């Protein structure tokens, strides 16, 4: 054979024992001392008959073999399942888009059923003309499309107390990333004619909890979106159908679902959700309040406790997600030794503002144990801190905004465990 | 009240009769002569009780009220539903991502069930070392993420004969757009060590039809992807689980599902799918063959026959999709008078190469009839042609590659119909 184009020889070594042998058993003229792959000599049922027709699934679900890729909740976390949360199976996903069907939910009085015909959105308060929009009204305003991450402020919250939950889904799964279609809130505020005295908006939803939050006017007029589609289709019931608020880069709690009312005010409401909840008490007794912006954060999703390494030494793909509410992720580093040394990972695409960024480290595993970490940096120059660094600033009483570096202890057998390293 | 910030007054007029009146009935101190909105005085059940808990749907489906947003097939199009096609409900979608669950399917022997453990991918032919990869092997190679559209070459094919199908879903719905995660085919070809004599690859799938196609080596080494995730999660059964080929910008038929084998060859195979099918006979008796690249194309998805205008004159959002296999969409124009005059639409985002682009025209409807069209341009300078222009070049015997300008006749009552205009 004439010249050929080959890859780096070190990687081919890992395949030689498996793939080459299997191919050798069937490739014409090649004699190799290897066990033939039994699969290739048996009848392959899927290749020998007809499959499902095009009328089988008007709206499809994942194949049954992907039953690991589901939302999960942790029963002991909350008193009931109604005011509660579940977690996105980030250990099993790749890319950046989170399918609506397995994207985490956080409800305060459960997910409600609200029809488009019944839907109303009121804009009132310090405005020239209070207005009540129907869903059909909203569809007549100019729309925008944006991909944004939504992270609950309590994401990773259990980990303040230590390495508690054994899986990236549970430690970091209060997050999703979707392409939203909607009308800028600014457009609706201008429609009502907002007063120059308006410094805040109070937003609430149509569910029993209403989940009212105060948002400063600068943010409301900036990039807040009144959204009615996610990943191309209507919002799912559990994601606020038919309309939710999207507050890019800010706490998930503010992304009010089943959005019902926006009131322009000259002061904040200081609702339950921004005083009793979503605040953190520091060691000196004062509380961090209105910690709106989600700080830069990252996590290795694979390998991880729910995604152990199932092969031997050799080529290994380490992958994970990074994000920042302050703008675009610029860099992610990965460590295999608990933060002693770092390598810079490859970003699948340049970081997008307030959206999930996928990173990869294509590396070689020597088969030994690893203490895997990732560390994100965003465009402000901020670097994701260690848990020790965070605790020094926040003390030990925090619930929210735990964006510390996560460590997975990966053992020689490929299994991983959530640990803390100093 | 002090100064306030208002939008353009012409748009506020449309709301005055509805929204303002409704708000007026409840806003403090405002007396308006209008019927109170009955909805606001009745008990709102959804606001008065608890909704679903977080364990209700480990993997969710759309809310029942969105039952229009499904794949549909046209029974008389094919002899059976096994070697057949269905259509994406593009009339009801927005943004650019197509959810896997309602993304169109085209099968030649039905959608098969193939487990990851049973999956094998062979690379053979003019290579140093024939290889057979397991799914687990593929996960060890460097991955990439890309958003690409996939369009069947037969999309809009029925319309060659005239204005046949009454809906954008049916005229243009053999298309979807997803974020793919996978390994470049180039990587795997280098792994096997492809020969300099290799000018083509022959790709086939594991289903009974195998759907073999020949792809020129330059394309195979360029951006062809061996993909195993779409929109973050595993490919759906009907989209080729667990692995499919992604051939950016090229005919959907080449995006072999359940990818089984890639053979490096010094000549094309001239399989059934590239001779008997996916070719078009011209008036002089010769055939267009290997018309790989999907030309620039666009369609207005709303208003359209399945998405009539349900409001009166005033603000109207005209929206649709544009795409090109030759690169990025640079501009989309919209006409309301069947192509006599054109306005340039707003692109939701700058065009991305080989991905769907969403466009909007935020306009004012005078309530009269319209002949709505859209016309796309891509980065090569190519302009989407009219049907007349296309027929002059292709004759009347074509089945595939109908990328002509589409016309919807919108009547005063808001209903739309598929028509041809000269």
Automatic annotation (TrEMBL), chains A, B:
<dbReference type="Pfam" id="PF00174">
    <property type="entry name" value="Oxidored_molyb"/>
</dbReference>
<dbReference type="InterPro" id="IPR006311">
    <property type="entry name" value="TAT_signal"/>
</dbReference>
<dbReference type="InterPro" id="IPR014756">
    <property type="entry name" value="Ig_E-set"/>
</dbReference>
<dbReference type="InterPro" id="IPR000572">
    <property type="entry name" value="OxRdtase_Mopterin-bd_dom"/>
</dbReference>
<dbReference type="GO" id="GO:0030151">
    <property type="term" value="F:molybdenum ion binding"/>
</dbReference>
<dbReference type="InterPro" id="IPR036374">
    <property type="entry name" value="OxRdtase_Mopterin-bd_sf"/>
</dbReference>
<keyword id="KW-0479">Metal-binding</keyword>
<dbReference type="InterPro" id="IPR030835">
    <property type="entry name" value="Sulfite_DH_SoxC"/>
</dbReference>
<dbReference type="InterPro" id="IPR008335">
    <property type="entry name" value="Mopterin_OxRdtase_euk"/>
</dbReference>
<feature type="signal peptide">
    <location>
        <begin position="1"/>
        <end position="33"/>
    </location>
</feature>
<dbReference type="Pfam" id="PF03404">
    <property type="entry name" value="Mo-co_dimer"/>
</dbReference>
<dbReference type="GO" id="GO:0006790">
    <property type="term" value="P:sulfur compound metabolic process"/>
</dbReference>
<feature type="domain" description="Oxidoreductase molybdopterin-binding">
    <location>
        <begin position="114"/>
        <end position="270"/>
    </location>
</feature>
<keyword id="KW-0732">Signal</keyword>
<dbReference type="GO" id="GO:0008482">
    <property type="term" value="F:sulfite oxidase activity"/>
</dbReference>
<feature type="domain" description="Moybdenum cofactor oxidoreductase dimerisation">
    <location>
        <begin position="288"/>
        <end position="407"/>
    </location>
</feature>
<protein>
    <submittedName>
        <fullName>Sulfite dehydrogenase</fullName>
        <ecNumber>1.8.2.1</ecNumber>
    </submittedName>
</protein>
<keyword id="KW-0500">Molybdenum</keyword>
<dbReference type="InterPro" id="IPR005066">
    <property type="entry name" value="MoCF_OxRdtse_dimer"/>
</dbReference>
<dbReference type="GO" id="GO:0050310">
    <property type="term" value="F:sulfite dehydrogenase activity"/>
</dbReference>
<dbReference type="GO" id="GO:0043546">
    <property type="term" value="F:molybdopterin cofactor binding"/>
</dbReference>
<keyword id="KW-0560">Oxidoreductase</keyword>
<dbReference type="GO" id="GO:0020037">
    <property type="term" value="F:heme binding"/>
</dbReference>
